[in-house]
Amino acid sequence: MGSRYQRAVPPAGYLGNPLDPDRGSGTGFASNQAYRFSGGFDIELNDSLTLDIDGTFWDSDRTAFAPGIVGTRLQNALNGLGGADCNPATGTPGAGPCQYFNPFSNAGPGNPTLGLTNPFYVPGNENSAELLRFLQIPNGTVEEESQFVFDLVLSGDTGFALPGGNVAFAVGFQYRDTNFNSRPINDESNLDINPCFREGDRSCVGTSTEGVGPFIFLGGSRPVDLDQSVYAFFGEVQLPITDRIEAQAAIRFEDYGGAVGSTINPKGSIRFEATDWLTFRGSVGTTFRGPIPSQVAPISVTALQGFTAAGGNFKSLDIFGNPNDLGPETAFTYNIGAIMNVPLGAGNVIFSVDYWSIDLEDRITTTPGDAIASLVGNGQTTGTAPVDCSSPLANLITFSGNTCIQGTTTGLDISRVRTDWVNGPDVKISGLDFALTVNVPLGETADLSFGGNAVWNLDYSFDEFVVQGVVTEEAYDAIGFGNYFRDPNTVPEWRANGFVNVGWEPFNVRYSVTHIDGVTDDRCVTRPAPCFSTSAGPTDFGIESGSYTQHDIALTVDVDLGFVEAQLQAAIKNFTDAEPATAQLPLGFNPFIGNAIGRNYRFGIRTRF
Length: 609
What we know:
The protein is mostly beta strands. The protein has three helices and 32 strands. The chain has helices spanning about 70-80, 130-135, 370-375, and strands at about 1-10, 25-45, 50-70, 110, 115, 135-160, 165-185, 225-240, 245-255, 260-275, 280-290, 300-305, 315-320, 330-345, 345-360, 365, 395-400, 415-425, 425-440, 445-460, 465, 470-475, 475, 495-505, 505-515, 520, 530-535, 535-540, 545, 550-560, 565-575, 600-609. The strands form six sheets. The protein has a 19-stranded antiparallel beta sheet that branches. Strands 12, 13, 16, 17 and 18 form a five-stranded mixed beta sheet that branches. A two-stranded antiparallel sheet has the order 4-5. A hairpin with a 2-residue loop joins β6 (about 135-160) and β7 (about 165-185). The longest helix has 8 residues, at about 70-80. It is globular, with a radius of gyration of 30 Å. The model is unreliable at about 1-10 (pLDDT under 50).
């Protein structure tokens, strides 16, 4: 379990939030609590049959909110009619309980975070803490998710023999029941109570703006209580065809009920020991993944995203559930590989290589919000150019003032973008996995091992994405690109890591290295240089995110204190202080290629009583 606070800045702007004089920010909150129970019975029915009965229950509770400004309260306060005890219909601006909100730079003495003095400050022009607390209130949810899983498996020997041995089997049943419920943290966050721009207004119900809510930046939510029950039957046989050839065959039936439906998925695998040191292996099968309850519920959640068409400014991204036609995603998978285990003196060398392929159909995903905004925004990147109000996707965007005027409305006027859970375009993924481990004894008490593994991504191609009959994203291969505003995020061509480990009682020293290939910003493939327009001027910063290599070293010492066994641990992570790969993102670096922590030191102790 845990709790976390986060910071946000109100309309006070560069002067910061007077409610937090040290940091000038607002305070959000997140608390998570979870527990899990699991148990089971293994019943030996006879010498060759075993019945396994297992059950698991887990529950996760989360309360989270961020401070948000209620739009009508802010507008009223700008008109001098702000405050909890002010009646905007009968009050007098700036008199009695009715207060003005001062948005100008003379409202505060300076910037507390940077320690800067404001030369334009006029004492007495400050906004009161009481008014700020009224304008900026918590916006969030209280959520609970729980699941019960019951498994029943009968396994054993069939009594039927093949040249390699007896055929084994397993058959079973599984039942999963998942419940998810969420309620808004207050009435202002509740879209059943406040569905429109204006607090307390319900005139938008049934129109395209229903559900925007009263907050100027964050979205609201609706109470929801969802339940999903899934049951499955499965069977598997193990076939020792010969002493060197073993095969397995399995099949699984799973039923989600309702619009999702059911599926039958077979799988087969084979392992062939060609020699004492060379083994071939392969498998083929299909998989099935149904949507979770929140994806098929008639609700929406709101996230924040920097939209290209809005000049990179953060806007609301509303993600709607799809209770009507969201179906399961399926995949056809196969892999083939080889393992070599070769003696090396008293040690050995183990090397493996595997080719794998995944063909996803009807992938469960959301419609691409940034691509939708860019299409309506005529492909602009500055936010200052006019949008296309006649676009067939304009109905998915809410503009400032709830209106789009051709030639006048610009990308900066984008307030919210609607996306939906859908079955998206098909995806083809393939690659090669490599692994190497060398073990070398160093005398009687010490051991040396070294090796590594690597992934070579060969294909990660997406079919075109069609929304309301419009192609919002052309087909593309994601390998070697940042994919910051499209699936599946950053995909370098190569990822690899290596290690050298030396152990001698009671010490162990391990050096490890991680390398991630660089990528290109896909947004700049078709744009003329310079690619980006920023407040500091045009730039090509971050087009090429260079590769990242991190070196770590760790030492452990085992200590036996008689009544307790202890292990002392120390490590230097990123001891070369490598910097992360650059990117034209708010952080200034690509979080999928390295991190910005730099060189850091870790110490720990592990005990066993």
